[in-house]
Structure to design on (536 residues):
């Protein structure tokens, strides 16, 4: 049945269900009836606006009963606040201890978590999360912990609390074991998770009992896959224990053999592909595919918990925000710390470079270059293959911050020194890689005839793609990236007029979180949360 012969209601419903790219193709047809439906439908216009903003509506917001026009207006106002760095609200929360007593931080969609050791001589720790609230001041919530716990992770949408512990092995007094357990976040980490088929602890690796430190740890979860990146030491005694461990947390089975690593940084491209940062012999990335991985049984200890199918009534599996970054807009940050680089014959200096990389672009590059006849699940992707086309490089003002938590969707936030006076407080700078934002700001700047746009609370300018990227890849011959890095990606640089007394900064879909009261700052240690969404 031809599309245009459908009744108007069915025609509208059919068009509304199409992917955005197909709706754009219908507009190019030039049919007056199709153009009228697309341009006058609040539902279709709202979907187009979401695609342009690089977001998707959460189920919670969709079910809130708000009309389509109001939801569209909410999205527009939210994007305007982000563009002007003009939060709708801000709150300050005390940490309750010094930042030096915090061993780890995790940033989630609607929570900020820390693992703290209140007494440096006592290995016992407490882990707490700060659930962000759109109304009132959020308060810290303590989760289950014990003296063996060394790190934790939270995945709110799965109601999942992961506890990483280091315990003695009675049968092997010269060894100790790192293990993890899966519990419900809603119970505060006291009840085993109902989706985990075995509610006990799952062993990861055995290490020498002589190791008395805390490994550099990164944990992340995507669907049923959980990854532990553990860096113990680069010394000869412990170097062989630096590995990436990949499990199915619902069964406790390994999804791939442990992989040696030279640093702890990794991220998910999607649930079946993991990106590992490579430093030697050249800077680059390695993509680990899990599609063909065979499960491997691991040791489990059932003595620590009993089986239960109960989900605690306090659990909240909903996204409490209005919008989430879409997969097509998702980017991630990689920081390369280069110990020493020769500069103009004047000796060696420390050097750090941060790359902001498109996930979809890297996934496409991996699929194009993957040898489907090879059994290898790991493929190295050289810097020269991806850096000019799907990334942008920066020299960070603060070389010590972990920038993995400073990017969300297409926005990358940093602190920057905006004046020559080093005593001045830094400003916030957001780099927005959304092509729609770049086009919109470029047009507005052209209309004003200037080089930048004054948004009242911030200044925006377009940083165009480097014209030099088309000249070839000669600048990527050195693995240390000693020359200026070129890129095909333009972006909008948004700089706040306000200065912030922060020592570090993080971002979620709806917030910017600043750490206050660091080593070089006065005042009580804590967080300031800037809200850019009104919540649901």
């Amino acid at each position: 049945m031809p599309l245009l012969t459908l009744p108007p209601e069915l025609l509208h419903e059919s068009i509304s269900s199409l992917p955005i790219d197909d709706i754009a193709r219908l507009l190019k047809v030039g049919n007056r009836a199709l153009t009228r439906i697309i341009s006058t439908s609040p539902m279709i216009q709202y979907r187009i606006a979401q695609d342009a903003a690089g977001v998707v509506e959460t189920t919670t917001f969709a079910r809130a009963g708000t009309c389509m026009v109001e939801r569209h207006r909410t999205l527009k106002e939210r994007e305007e606040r982000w563009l002007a760095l003009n939060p709708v609200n801000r709150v300050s929360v005390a940490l309750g201890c010094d930042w030096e007593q915090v061993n780890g931080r995790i940033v989630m969609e609607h929570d900020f978590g820390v693992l703290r050791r209140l007494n440096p001589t006592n290995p016992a720790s407490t882990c707490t999360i700060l659930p962000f609230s759109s109304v009132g001041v959020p308060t810290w919530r303590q989760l289950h912990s014990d003296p063996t716990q060394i790190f934790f992770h939270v995945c709110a949408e799965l109601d999942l609390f992961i506890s990483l512990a280091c315990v003695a092995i009675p049968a092997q007094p010269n060894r100790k074991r790192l293990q993890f357990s899966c519990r419900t976040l809603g119970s505060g980490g006291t009840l085993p998770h109902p989706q985990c088929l075995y509610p006990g602890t799952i062993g990861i690796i055995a290490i020498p009992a002589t190791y008395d430190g805390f490994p550099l740890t990164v944990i992340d979860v995507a669907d049923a896959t959980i990854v532990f990146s553990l860096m113990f030491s680069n010394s000869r005694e412990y170097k062989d224990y630096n590995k990436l461990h990949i499990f199915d947390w619902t069964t406790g089975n390994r999804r791939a053999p442990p992989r040696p690593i030279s640093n702890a940084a990794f991220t998910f491209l999607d649930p079946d592909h993991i990106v590992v940062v490579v430093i030697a012999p050249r800077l680059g990335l390695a993509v680990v595919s899990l599609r063909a991985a065979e499960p491997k049984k691991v040791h489990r200890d059932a003595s620590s918990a009993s089986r239960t199918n109960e989900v605690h009534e306090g659990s909240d599996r909903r996204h409490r925000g209005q919008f989430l970054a879409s997969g097509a807009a998702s980017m991630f940050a990689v920081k390369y710390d280069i110990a020493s680089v020769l500069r103009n014959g004047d000796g060696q200096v420390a050097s750090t470079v941060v790359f902001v990389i498109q996930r979809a672009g890297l996934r496409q590059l991996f699929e194009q270059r993957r040898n489907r006849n090879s059994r290898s699940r790991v493929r190295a992707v050289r810097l020269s293959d991806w850096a000019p086309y799907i990334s942008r490089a920066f020299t960070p003002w603060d070389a010590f911050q972990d920038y993995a938590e400073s990017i969300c969707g297409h926005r990358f936030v940093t602190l920057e020194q905006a004046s020559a006076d080093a005593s001045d407080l830094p400003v916030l700078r957001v780099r927005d890689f959304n092509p729609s934002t770049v086009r919109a700001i470029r047009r507005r700047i052209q209309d004003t005839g200037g080089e930048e746009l004054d948004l009242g609370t911030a200044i925006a300018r377009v940083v165009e793609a480097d014209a030099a990227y088309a000249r070839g890849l000669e600048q990527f011959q050195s693995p240390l990236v000693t020359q200026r890095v070129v890129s095909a990606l333009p972006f909008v640089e948004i700089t706040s007029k306000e200065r912030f007394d922060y020592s570090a900064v993080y971002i979620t879909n709806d917030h910017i979180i600043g750490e206050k009261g660091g080593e070089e700052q006065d005042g009580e240690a804590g967080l300031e949360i800037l809200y850019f969404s009104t919540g649901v």
Summary: DSSP finds nine helices and 32 strands in the chain. The longest helix spans residues 68-84. The mean pLDDT is 82.
